[in-house]
Amino acid sequence: MRQRTELSERPQSFTVIKEDQMAIITFYTDVEEEVREDTTVYTAVAWDMTVPWQDNLEERIMMNFNAWFQKAQSLAYDLAAAAARAKRNELLSASDSSMALDRLGLTVPSGSTFTAWLTFLRNLGSALTGEFAKYRQALRDLPEQPGFPYEIEWPDLPK
Q: Which pTM does this prediction carry?
C-alpha cells in the first residue's frame, strides 16, 4: 500500500514490524520536514508490504534494498490499480442503463422513407457520441492518465 503519512520523528529508509509470523515492511520516500507551532512534523510517502517473517530480515533488506523497495512499489501499484479499476467498473455498470437503446429517447420511424431513417440514424449517432458516451470513454481511459492509479481525475457523471 502507498500512502502519505505524518510522523513525529524523521523516518529511517525502512522499518520492519513483526506481527505473529508476518513482517510489515514500510519504506519511506519523499520525506518533508515542517514546523508547526514549535513542533517539527515529518511527512513521507509510506510503501507497506507484508511478508512472512524471516530471521535476519532487516539485514536481508539492507543487502538488497532496491529489489525490496521495487517489490513494495509494485505491490502498491497493483493494489491501487485493482481498486481503481473496480471502482471504474462499478461506474460503468451503473451507467449501462443510460446507454441502452430504449433509454436514448429515440423513436424508430414507422415508415420506410429515406428521410425518416436518415433522421433516426443522425439522432442515434448523436446519442452514441453524447455526454454519457464521453463519460464512459473517460472511465475506460482512466488507466492512461499520467497519475494512475494514485492520482486519478474521475470524470463527472452527466446529468
A: 0.74
Under a CB-based contact definition with an 8 Å cutoff, are residues 55 and 8 in contact?
Answer: no
Give the three cell numbers for residue 77: 501499484
Residues 6 or more apart whose CB falls under 8 angstroms from that of 130 comprise 158
122-140: b (≥16 Cβ within 10 Å) or e: eeeeebeeeebbebbebbe
Mapped onto helix, strand or coil, the DSSP state of residue 132 is helix
| Contacts (Cβ under 8 Å, ≥6 apart) of 7 | 41, 42, 43, 44
C-alpha cell at 31: 520525506
Residue position matching grid coordinates 532496491: 66
With a pLDDT cut of 90, the percent of the chain lying above it is 67
CA dihedral (50, 54, 55, 59) in degrees, to 10, reads: -60
Identify which of 67, 77, 6 has the alpha carbon closest to the alpha carbon of residue 41: 6
